[in-house]
Amino acid sequence: MQVTIDHSAGFCKGVEHSVRIAEDELERGGTLFCLGEIIHNRQEVSRLSEKGLQIIDHDAFSRLKDVRVLIRAHGEPPETYRIARENNITLIDTTCRIVRTLQQRIREDDAEALPQGVQMVIAGKKDHPEVRGLRGQIPGTVRIISTAEELAGIDFRKPVCIYAQTTFNASRFESIKTQAVELSNAIPEGERGPLIIRNTICGEVRRREKTLAGFCRGHAVIVFVSDPTSSNGKFLFSICKTNNASSYFVTGPGELEAEWFTGADSAGVTGATSTPLWLLQKVAEKITRIVSSQQE
Questions:
Q1: Which helix (H) or strand (E) covers residue 270, if one does?
Q2: Domain boundaries, position 245
Q3: Which residues are catalytic?
């Protein structure tokens, strides 16, 4: 039986950068705090915690002084940087380049359109740390939506600017874009405001969605490895199930079932953008041992 790890799986570049910087800082010694879990994978967080990384929330952060704090790839609102300056906190900023560009784009759009009273809309998950960082970039109200149906509350007689969380479901964002255009066009031309839609989904995320379908169809069994709290993991696993009914979600090698591989000639191992490669390798090794024992 052939066991293959998806070559496009593993950390995205933004997460990979954050983890590498965290490891470098930990090697320097001393205490290193991280504002929120560095990634949505408890096993990787546990690995880094054993090296000395201390996870804190925003309340704890506001009480710290004269320490080092890592900003994860998701980014933070300006308020976090203000507190750091006041409390002499050294920030190790690993905000993803794509997220940082989106933050700047939102600030610029708001500044340019402020006299028009533009309605800022972000397609994303309301409680996601990236979205919290994005909505904090401007002082006004930012509406967060996750479906096209939620556009019903937007007044398209006024200016509307729509963005996407960088890891948002690409097909769902297409539906939102289509619906927004339809709602805008339903208003007479002289009465509707300008509509700006910025496709800000990360290109790496979009590519992974496309390649994952082919990977799943090319194997008899698919094992998807992710933390259950990962939104990206839930979405990518749905792609697996759509393209291969024999797809199974696990958090690690201990959850594998031998019966999944009985009679199968190939197995593919893949995961979320927050799933470390070392964990995918451990799962693949366990599958190989399971199959070997079945053949004895």
A1: strand 266-271
A2: 2-10+204-295
A3: 130
